[in-house]
Amino acid sequence: MLDRWTSLWIRSPLNLLARPLKKMGVRADQVTLTGFLIGLAALPLLAFELYLPALAAILCNRVMDGLDGALARITHATDAGGYLDITLDFIFYSAIVLGFAFADPERNALMASLLIFTFMGTGSSFLAYAIMAEKKGLCDPNFSHKSFYYLNGLAEGTETIAIFVLFCLFPQYFPIMAAIFAAICILTTVTRVWGGYQTIKQADESNCP
After folding, report:
1. Is the separation of the CB atoms in 4 and 56 below 8 Å?
2. CB-based contacts of 97: which residues, under 8 Å, 6+ apart?
3. 191 or 209: which leads in pLDDT
4. Fewest CB within 10 A of the end CB: N or C in the chain?
5. What is the CATH number of the domain that holds 131?
């Protein structure tokens, strides 16, 4: 829901960071992979209840996730890079939730499982629509710089990172916060499936290519 605004706020700072990397010959895919490995380090940190170091790894991952896109746009954006970026993002999101399950299985495992389940809904509705949007030639002016078409929802990247920050700052409340965010993800999935279906159906009926 907030991505359309946050993407505008962070674009200029990320472009400033990307320019020196371009001069050094760093490729966007290298930033993507490095950021993913840093983010994945949060999983064992969470498992050992090292929440602040884990939060640092999460935030670093998110900065690098934006930085790889900025670097790609001023060098050469590729479909392969976009594919790598979105795939590793979804693995990262699930890994963070899994880390909290490992930290306290008795209290966290059930809600962590529910949240990962709902991530499947938001992720699959997002990616399935992206495929059809590309096939139909649909476009989104709010996210023209993205490799994939964004079908808006309540739970997007900004909201997900915000809840991860809250998880790390207040880990004792993980079950209740995870349950609330899972409900938001379910609502997002329902609205995306319905909205996506109607949009694609209209495109079919109007014989759009």
Report:
1. no
2. 112, 115, 116, 119, 178
3. 191
4. C
5. 1.20.120.1760
